[in-house]
Amino acid sequence: xxxxxxxxxxxxxxxxxxxxxxxxxxxxxxxxxxxxxxxxxxxxxxxxxxxxxxxxxxxxxxxxxxxxxxxxxxxxxxxxxxxxxxxxxxxxxxxxxxxxxxxxxxxxxxxxxxxxxxxxxxxxxxxxxxxxxxxxxxxxxxxxxxxxxxxxxxxxxxxxxxxxxxxxxxxxxxxxxxxxxxxxxxxxxxxxxxxxxxxxxxxxxxxxxxxxxxxxxxxxxxxxxxxxxxx
Length: 231
Fold this sequence. Notes:
Layout: E1 6-10, H1 14-25, E2 30-34, H2 37-45, E3 51-54, H3 60-70, E4 80-85, H4 90-98, E5 103-106, H5 111-124, E6 132-134, E7 138-141, E8 146-149, E9 154-156, H6 159-170, E10 175-176, H7 178-184, H8 194-208, E11 213-216, E12 220-223
């Protein structure tokens, strides 16, 4: 089993750092934080960091200095760096990219977008932990059991709901009977009779905000993948 990825937040504004850390930790990553440059030096010298996010409360020169010393400059073991800069800092942005920064984002920023950029870097490093399913109105990360709605809100799936969704994903366009569901994705308690199956399907549809799970009267239920799932 792969070890969890480690993300370092260096001099990232407290509100952004709190939200970003929560977002990343719920997806199974370790997050370490350094407020001051000397704390960052100690943290990055210890190795084992996959991605470093450098906030704009650190000067661009200090951020580039960290990048020079710890970004690897061709060393595959070095962490990927994301630097946050002010919109007017075009020269600083270009310099950071030329020095090997994996990404540079402008503030103010969207934390969810920043987390997605971190996730993309982790995937390229072979450290991604997401298993994403895109539905009409939401994206589901099955591994962390999180539903991410287009509105920006998130909800947690229960273990039973994850098992039920995985069952549908494994059998697209196939009618699953109540017996199929009870056998492959049992309820989380002893009440797994016919009417409880109906209730579980209704709750799952509501949480996913989806019409892809169809009731086939007298037969069972069918998952009709959205266009993204087409061959």
